Amino acid sequence: MKLAKRVASLTPSTTLAITAKAKELKAAGHDVIGLGAGEPDFNTPQHIIDAAVKAMNEGHTKYTPSGGLADLKAEIIKKFKEDQNLGYEPSEIIVCVGAKHALYTLFQVILDEGDEVIIPTPYWVSYPEQVKLAGGVPVYVEGLEENEFKITPEQLQSAITERTKAVIINSPSNPTGMIYTKEELAALGEICLKHDILIVSDEIYEKLVYDGHKHVSIAQISPELKEQTIIINGVSKSHSMTGWRIGYAAGNKEIIRAMTDLASHSTSNPTSIAQYATIAAYSGSQETVEEMRQAFEQRLNIIYEKLIQIPGFSCVKPQGAFYLFPNAKEAAALAGYHNVDEFVAALLEEAKVAIVPGSGFGAPDNVRLSYATSLELLEKAIERIKQFMEQKMNR
Ligand SMILES: Cc1ncc(COP(=O)(O)O)c(C=O)c1O
């Protein structure tokens, strides 16, 4: 069967490919340490699980409104007000099947064939594919390592054409962990306002910020920028709820209405039980969120120092999320490989450590290591990488 043109150029996720290879090696009896994970290694907090069980027992197992339960929207609105002093109406919120689905639905409703979306590199793997699936054209702007992987207003300005529809800002970033400051966002925002470009602000790692760094949403800067921005967020990372699949979008009523109409013909609604669990996640104690954040911060500070001691690795210290994104070009060369992709493959085959090559994130000289795994395993993995380098360099 000939598949549709739409999917012919789909690139499968590199993150999932490395995870599959690591699993294969594990199944064959190898002691592989996987640092590819894009999800917290903690259980979903018990009170959230209890709320889901209660919801099922109370019969909340039926369709819900396509845009999400009114009570859940109310909790999300409360969260926006309390955390970011942003005011939204229920008609400005849609609850989706994860933040990924919120983004997918958004691109489907805003893009026509040939419309351009500016994607700063390094980027989260799904952005370009989602844009292309909606008929859009990704336009890459390189976030330089020497500028903490962030794009400048000049770079943004020069990427704009008549077809530019939107720009994606992902702060804290997957894969770099970098956070845009308020001043940086204000400067980028000014250009977006001038050219009437929609800002897609992916804030899924909002709660995971370290060493005193603060997350600011571009929508907080001015009422004009709030109007120009669709915020994407969810509970996957903050509440360790990746499998529950709840995320949401907030912003312009018309866009949200179109997204809701589209969802009514695709998902109908996010799982009712997961929506009730998310009500508990937001209305209950946030202590577990902070406990997870502290555990990540501790790991980052230990593992970062060890990583930069390894020959050939240099790394801008991440400020948020749960990834390290070192430049490994020199390490690959020192170990005798042509490029970082080959180096990553050898590291998995020989040292049994699975990390993700940066090529999938639009940064082929870098690698992504997730620290969403125990400190013990992280230290063991770093030791293996170190030994691998020593062996290769002493040949
Ligand atoms: C930057 C970014 N945005 C969105 C998502 C999707 O989150 P969700 O699990 O809520 O779909 C992820 C997950 O890896 C991510 O890293």
From TrEMBL:
Give one Pfam hit by family name.
Answer: Aminotran_1_2
The UniProt family comment states: Belongs to the class-I pyridoxal-phosphate-dependent aminotransferase family.
Q: So what EC number does this one have?
A: 2.6.1.-
Q: Name one GO biological process term.
A: amino acid metabolic process
* GO MF: pyridoxal phosphate binding; transaminase activity
Endpoints of the signal sequence? none
Lineage: superkingdom = Bacteria
Q: Which UniProt keywords apply?
A: Aminotransferase, Pyridoxal phosphate, Transferase
Q: Which enzyme class, named as a word?
A: transferase
- Cofactor dependence: pyridoxal 5'-phosphate
Tell me what this protein is called: Aminotransferase
Q: Which residues form the Aminotransferase class I/classII large domain?
A: 31-385
Name its species.
[Anoxybacillus] calidus
